[in-house]
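Example 3.2
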Amino acid sequence: MDIQAIHSILLDKFGSEIVGSEPHKAIDPWIQVDGRSIVSVGKFLRDDQRLLFNHLNDLCGVDYFEPDPKKAEKFGHEPHIEVVYQLSSIKLKHRLKLKVRLDRWKDGVAGNLPCIPSVSSVWGIADWHEREAYDLAGIHFENHPNLRRILCPEDWVGYPLRKDYEFPLEYHGVRGR
């Protein structure tokens, strides 16, 4: 099943406010999903017999921000964060990419992490993927059963995959650069 057919099913079920009026065309096309509805869309994608997206291959956070003011003019994006979901149906042998767009900071306040509901109740493996996105990109997953750092030490400050992240010169007496 191609992305157009999958989007048509989602459009009938959720409407364009939730899944957009059409898929985004690219080499690897995707469907934009409203973040507040990601759990219900995920459950539908997993359970509907026409779709059966039973496997979350990957979930990652992407920071669309250009810290260099000269380059920012040509960047072509408003600064934001995206959560990208790569799904597969093992039984039906089709794949799908979903994206959720979030503000870089909740309520526009630097340091307030953007929030999105956790899909760990839909796909168990999301537990680990969401922890990684939290740890490295600074995305808070609401209702996650164990949201804590997974790669960086618990006392690490900041989120290393944020474009404005400044690597510390020293950590616990060990010089970094």
